[in-house]
Amino acid sequence: MKRKQVFQFSHQNWYPQFLKRDMFEFMTWFVGKVNAAKPFLPVISEGLQHVPAHRIINIDSQIGAGFETVKDLISEKPEIINLPIQQFNTSNSGLYLFVNSFHKLKPDVARNYLSEIAKSRNAVVVVEGNNDSLWQVVGMTVFVPLAVILSAPLVKPFRVTRLIFTYLIPVLPIVTMLDGFLALFKLYNPNDLNELVSEIPENNYTWKSAKADNGRGGKIMYLIGWPEKL
Questions:
Q1: Domain assignment present for 146
Q2: Which of 14, 23, 123, 228 is geometrically suited to a Cys-Cys bond with 204, CB 3.0 to 4.6 A?
Q3: What is the pLDDT of residues 29-51, one digit of tens each?
Q4: What pTM value is reported for the model?
Q5: Residue 16 pLDDT grade (very low, low, confident, very high; cuts 50, 70, 90)
Q6: Residue 135 has what pLDDT?
Q7: Mean per-residue pLDDT for 180-207?
Q8: Does 64 map to a domain?
Q9: 157 cis-preceded (ω within 30 degrees of 0)
Q10: List of residues 6+ apart from 209 with CB closer than 8 A
Q11: In the chain, how many domains are there?
Q12: Portion of the chain with pLDDT greater than 90, in percent
């Protein structure tokens, strides 16, 4: 498996909560401004076709740039249940959705979550806006920190702390760059996803993983799983 479990500053308990907040708000704002969640829509729509209950169970990792970037773009307008990732369970029926969050899970936990969803006879969609290409590395190390610097006064909600820790003490551009770069090592590419699901014994369940164009010269990565009709 290419995916690696690596350290990220903003995921540590000692990292100040207000800096996490400012960083995650920027990520959500930025993804919305560049419309980076739009390529997820066909994948999510396909997943919804495989569930009788018109419902999305959003697995929320609370790290920014998650379901909040895509919910207003979904034309089907399903019922939404927000489920914190630490409280994961399969008590609800519908489409279990991971938006830019699945990479946070270690392989054994990720496999267990997918297995539990398959056993519950629900569908699942995993979408990641980043990928494992060299161009993505350039984007994370050059364009993203530059965007943090240029957009600090514009991000909503406005926060004085964001200005202080962008311009006076440049923690936010530095940590956003480093954590964004390190997160690329944690991504599950399609081969990794296939490896995960190959070890799930649930029968009569279909898996599909691939990359897809994001409309800006890059790729998204995704996984769809659904129960076959018996």
A1: no
A2: 228
A3: 999 888 889 999 999 999 999 99
A4: 0.93
A5: very high
A6: 84
A7: 93
A8: yes
A9: yes
A10: 190, 193, 194, 197, 221, 222, 223, 224
A11: 1
A12: 81
Whichever domain contains 44, its CATH number is 3.40.50.150
Contact 60, 66 (CB under 8 A): yes
Look at residue 92 and tell me if it is in a domain: yes
From the CB of residue 120, how many other CB atoms can be counted at a distance below 10 Å?
A: 17
Residues 6+ apart with CB under 8 A from 69: 28, 31, 32, 36, 37, 99, 100
Q: Is the Cβ–Cβ distance between 165 and 159 less than 8 Å?
A: no
Residue 10 located in a structural domain: no
Per-residue pLDDT reduced to its tens digit, 61-107:
888 889 999 999 998 889 999 999 999 999 999 999 999 999 999 99
Structure tokens at 73: 């773009």
Using CB atoms within 10 Å of the CB of residue 169, give its burial: 0 to 12 exposed, 13 to 18 middle, 19+ buried: exposed
Rounded CA separation 174/165 (Å): 10
Domain boundaries, position 203: 35-132+187-227
| Distance in angstroms (rounded) separating the CA atoms of residues 126 and 44 | 9
Q: What is the pLDDT of residue 134?
A: 84
Q: What is the pLDDT of residue 173?
A: 97
Average pLDDT value over all residues in the chain: 93
